[in-house]
Specification:
Blueprint: E1 15-20, H1 27-42, E2 47-52, H2 63-86, E3 91-94, E4 101-105, E5 115-120, H3 123-130, E6 134-138, E7 140-142, E8 148-150, H4 153-164, E9 168-173, H5 181-193, E10 200-205, H6 209-214, E11 221-223, E12 229-232, H7 240-251, H8 259-263, E13 267-273, E14 278-283, E15 292-298, H9 307-318, E16 322-327, H10 333-339, E17 342-345, E18 349-354, H11 361-371
Parallel strand pairs: 1-2, 1-9, 2-6, 3-6, 9-10
Antiparallel strand pairs: 4-5, 7-8, 10-11, 12-13, 13-14, 14-15, 16-18, 17-18
Length: about 400
Amino acid sequence: MKQFQRSTDPLKPFCVVLIEDDVFKRPDMLSHLCSGLSFLQRNEMKSVIVHGERIPSCEDISLDKLQESRNTFVRNSMILVNMLEAHGAKARPLFTGNNILVAEKLHQCRFGMLGQLKEVNTNLIKWCLGSNHIPVIYSIGESVQGQLLDLDCLSTAQRVAEELEPIKVLQLNTNGGIQSADNQIYSISRLLDRLPNQSSVVITSADTLLQELFTHHGSGTMFKNTERIHTYKNYDDVDLNRLYHLITRSFHRRLRAEYFSQVINNIDTLYLSENYNAVAVITKEAGIEVPYMDKFGVSSQNQGQGTAEMLWQMVRQDYQTLFWRSRHTNAINPWYFKRSEGSWSNGKWIVFWYGLSDPKLSYELVEHALSLPESFVSEADHLIEAEDYH
């Protein structure tokens, strides 16, 4: 959770949250969402909420339709604020008339009530963030002449995100799925190109917010511009000092001084991300046919960002069989269980594997994994306050 907290910058939100209109038809789901948003607020992970409706670019909006939408959005804003405050989070509805969403008419529309967002005035949004309130914005903009114009809520949320540069952009609906996949994926890709490298976009169900943010498997679909992962067959082109610090950060324990010299002759493939934020070490062990995953780790700032899954998919694609071990107390073990086909535990270590055609081979793999020396300085010699990653 610590890598998501931004207490040092009170005007930067952790997330911009788009709540699609179908969520407001599910009071139970909306209440569950507000509980999650309240949790984030209490833990210094501030949110900015945008809601409204999706509008196809070819749709014509009449004045009556605009007034109907505005009445619905105002009502939904009040419902949302009341629920957030009932769950202990302070919130403020930002109604039209504050010149937050500056728009212009799309003149090709006959009725002329559909607008295109041109500018986001962030002053009031940042005032809310600075006073520890969650700003709630609905997707109706104003022209410079003061005319109200209906806006597509997805485009609005993405433009707000561009201005505020959150860590997460969350698009919430009732089913967690992607609608209009081609256009939506293109707009997400374009948004990510305009956000900081650590930012990501998530589409998920409104009642699985915390599960998506704080579990390794997540519950929705995440998009992120991740680092490229390179493969090596030896250490020749690798900065061992940076690799040492990556493993230390990932595992929260200090490597033994002899680790690299012990492993160098056994390396089959070293997977390493471009900026040294993710690593997997696959070795060929003497007398063992199945490759062994000696290390699999991701730096804390990249955990929960999809990097681990991308790294795993590369390993899985290259190796049809694999085994590895993990401490029994390792919090990542549920993630490993889902990606393995078998396991064995002695109370200290869990040995995992997949792809074995002969079940009897697992006995040999378990025996070998348990015989391997420790990679890290013992906790008695060097304590770091955190859990192992592998």
